[in-house]
Design the sequence.
């Protein structure tokens, strides 16, 4: 198990935290459905338009290198949304067999054309795949959406289907200021804490893959009063 940032080349996004403070509970309830509003509604409700723009290509390259993926290897993206990473992994590593699973029927029904048939609607806590059936399991910014017991179950499932390779990334904060940004911005995370909190939880779940944290940052422009 190693702490390594495979999303180092993911672009930073601008976040208007103040705009999310209005109607927070209403927006949270909508977001938790992981439907059209969450992906393609307003920025206050979620992504504010979840469209493919190629930003996952460098991350896919780093994942292929890290796991030494080759044609014929099987990879599962847990919480794959519309399959952007699934598509880009297959693009940068021709012949690799990448699949995805996500609770959102909306996301799967609106996936990238290249991944039709590769994405399943399902729950990360009950993966419908045999033990050890993937070379690597990836789960990016998804598992924090469960309560603590659900996180443990989902991490064990990830470990079960890909015993020798995993990459898990979840939201975290390192100090009270980052925690406040997190609480103001995040709509769907149910379990959250510091990197140490997560490291302890990964240990408890018996996780042996690699991992890193998403630390939310905001554009200083947006914080001016
Ligand atoms: C923040 S998005 C991350 C999407 C993608 N991995 C990324 O990094 O762009 C969280 C994803 O988790 C999915 N999700 C939420 N609950 C889930 C569950 N119980 N099982 C599987 N996926 C779930 C949501 O539908 C959404 O696509």
Sequence:
């Amino acid at each position: 198990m190693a702490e390594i940032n495979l999303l180092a080349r993911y672009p930073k996004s601008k976040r208007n935290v103040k705009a999310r403070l209005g109607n927070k509970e209403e927006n949270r309830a909508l977001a938790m459905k992981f439907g059209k509003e969450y992906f393609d509604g307003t920025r206050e409700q979620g992504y504010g338009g979840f469209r493919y723009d190629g930003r996952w290509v460098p991350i896919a390259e780093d994942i292929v290198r890290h796991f030494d993926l080759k044609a014929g290897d099987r990879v599962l993206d847990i919480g794959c949304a519309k399959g952007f990473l699934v598509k880009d992994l297959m693009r940068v590593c021709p012949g690799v067999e990448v699949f995805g699973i996500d609770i959102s029927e909306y996301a799967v029904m609106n996936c990238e054309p290249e991944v039709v048939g590769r994405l399943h609607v399902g729950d990360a806590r009950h993966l419908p795949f045999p033990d050890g059936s993937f070379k690597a399991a990836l789960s990016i910014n998804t598992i924090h959406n469960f309560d603590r017991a659900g996180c443990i179950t989902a991490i064990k499932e990830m470990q079960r289907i890909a015993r020798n390779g995993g990459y898990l990334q979840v939201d975290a904060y390192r100090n009270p200021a980052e925690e406040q940004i997190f609480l103001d911005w995040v709509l769907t995370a149910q379990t959250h804490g510091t990197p140490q909190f997560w490291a302890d939880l990964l240990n408890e779940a018996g996780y042996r893959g690699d991992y890193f944290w998403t630390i939310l940052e905001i554009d200083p422009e947006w914080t001016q009063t």
About this structure: The beta strands are 74-78, 97-102, 119-121, 136-140, 166-172, 210-215.
